[in-house]
Design goal:
Layout lengths: L2 H18 L23 E8 L18 H9 L1 E7 L5 H10 L3 H4 L15 H7 L3 E7 L29 E5 L2 H4 E2 L2 E2 L11 E2 L3 H19 L5 E10 L34 H28 L6 E6 L19 H4 E7 L12 E3 L3 H8 L33 E6 L5 E6 L2 E6 L13 E9 L17 H17 L6 E3 L6
Parallel strand pairs: 1-8, 1-9, 2-11, 3-4, 3-8, 15-16
Antiparallel strand pairs: 2-10, 5-6, 6-7, 9-10, 12-13, 13-14, 14-15
């Protein structure tokens, strides 16, 4: 095909797809497949992941009067900010393996922390690498469980090979960043395993500077080759060894009397002492987004780069089950998901229920390539104007997202537009057992009537029929995702 014909073909595809999309729906069993061919100038892809970032801490979402995120807001204003995105497992390693491969943790093999994923599954990086992209990673990896020769966990460098899961051209950072760094100093490993470290600079700023350097170098040295860059920040996740969210010095004291989200108020937890630091960390992440956008613009790459800002899970501030996440509540599972750039340029706020399973298919599809059948999510591209993907999934009884929970308990949940339902196996241990055998009703919330999820409807006689319906939907999802069929047990009493 001649170059001008390929370009015309790509433009025709985008135009026709925008006119003929169906209704958007998240589903664990659907995936996008296409036959389109990429244009000559393939878009770059920039993934910006902020760890444990609550969706109500994006100021433009209008749910928090204290938070300051002008750069993230600007990204949302020019792109598509999905208002109801749910992660598929509220825990770092499983969530990351899930959004990287568009498969649930029990399929990737990473059903809890510090396990090695099944690298036979395609990832967003392996797919784009095959299409000629330079693939690069910078920051927090937390997707490897390979042991050191002495049997200890791998905390730092990930050597070239399968464990990089397609990020073959440039890898720097650490597997467990918070284990080898602190907010103002620490170990940090370059592509060849050299510890280049940092000191007297805030961790978010250092990682941002490394990403800026990559963007500048690729624009200067190889401007015609497309790239995928995954920038993974630790903040606003707590620094584990001190159990605190540590903001940059420039924001210390700024949020001492900030707004307290309504789902936290009056609940026991540590939000009273941790929330102000969290706010400062969030603003530092916004600074990162702003710096990266300015670098893209300065280097002439902004107009041809798809940018996605998202998080692996939310944060409950230990108000639920004593956990920061690892619970089915919206504070733990809802995350921001903002796309901007080619195909996402109309400033929309889609309200459809989507999940992080949709992230990789969206980036692959928006880049002009076929989404592998092994990916279970669906593409949200290029329809950011209220229309849905051209790959319309089969109709389901309810639009839903399937969620797996480990570590705190062995549990499974579904989130629909109106309901959250979760069941757990009370006889198993969350960090030792992968699958449940006997799931008992744990919680049920009517999320629109009770957005803070304060009233658990499990065991209430007036909601028995609805609980039966949701329990059956959950049962079907467990089986559909290849897990052993469990016994589902109704909670007989109000608790």
């Amino acid at each position: 095909m001649a170059n001008n014909e390929a370009s015309n073909s790509r433009r025709a595809f985008l135009r026709n797809a925008a006119l003929t999309g169906g209704a958007m729906m998240a589903s664990a069993e659907t995936h996008a497949q296409g036959t389109k061919k990429p244009a000559k100038k393939q878009p770059n892809v920039l993934m910006i992941c902020s760890d444990q970032f609550r969706t109500d801490f994006v100021a433009s979402n209008g749910r928090n009067p204290s938070v300051k995120t002008p750069n993230i807001d600007a990204l949302a204003a020019r792109g598509a900010s999905f208002q109801t995105c749910v992660c598929n497992q509220p825990l770092c390693s499983p969530s990351r393996s899930s959004f990287m491969s568009s498969n649930h943790g029990t399929r990737t093999g990473v059903w809890k922390l510090n396990l090695e994923p099944d690298h036979s599954l395609p990832s967003v990086a392996t797919v784009l690498k095959q299409q000629g992209y330079t693939t690069a990673f910078i920051g927090k990896w937390h997707q490897s469980g390979v042991q050191q020769p002495d049997g200890s966990k791998r905390l730092g460098w990930i050597e070239p090979g399968p464990s990089r899961w397609g990020f073959d051209d440039h890898w720097e950072g650490a597997n467990n960043v918070d284990s080898v760094t602190h907010p103002y100093q620490g170990n940090y490993y370059d592509n060849d395993g050299r510890n280049i470290g940092f000191r007297d600079i805030y961790r978010v700023d250092f990682i941002t500077q490394r990403a800026e350097q990559f963007l500048e170098n690729t624009a200067k040295n190889n401007p015609d080759k497309p790239w995928l860059l995954y920038v993974s920040q630790l903040e606003p996740h707590q620094q584990n060894d001190v159990d605190d969210m540590v903001p940059p010095k420039r924001y210390e004291g700024k949020y001492d009397n900030a707004y307290v989200p309504t789902d936290l108020r009056d609940l026991p937890g540590n939000w009273n002492s941790r929330l102000k630091g969290y706010y400062g960390c969030v603003e530092a992440i916004d600074d990162c987004v702003g710096s990266l956008m300015k670098t893209l613009e300065k280097t002439g790459q902004l107009d041809n780069t798809i940018v996605v800002f998202f998080s692996d899970h939310g944060c409950t501030f230990r108000t639920r089950m004593g956990e920061y996440k690892r619970s089915p509540h919206d504070a733990a599972i809802r995350v921001p998901l903002i796309f901007a750039g080619p195909g996402f340029d109309k400033g929309t706020r889609p309200t459809e229920l989507v999940s992080l399973l949709d992230l990789a298919p969206t980036l692959i599809d928006a880049s002009g390539h076929t989404v592998p059948a092994a990916m279970k999510g669906r593409s949200l591209a290029p329809h950011n104007d209220g229309a849905a993907s051209h790959d319309k999934p089969a109709q389901q009884p309810e639009e839903l997202v399937y969620i797996q929970i480990s570590d705190s308990m062995v549990a499974r949940a579904i989130r629909t537009r109106d309901w959250l339902f979760c069941a757990y196996d009370p006889d198993l241990i969350g960090d030792k057992d992968e699958y449940g055998k006997r799931y008992l009703d744990f919680c049920m919330y009517q999320v629109n009537a009770d957005p803070d999820q304060r009233t658990n409807l499990v065991g209430r006689a007036e909601y028995k029929d609805k609980a039966d319906e949701l329990r059956e939907l959950l049962h079907k999802q467990i089986i559909a995702n290849g897990e052993p069929e469990p016994v589902m047990v109704r909670q007989k009493y109000y608790v």
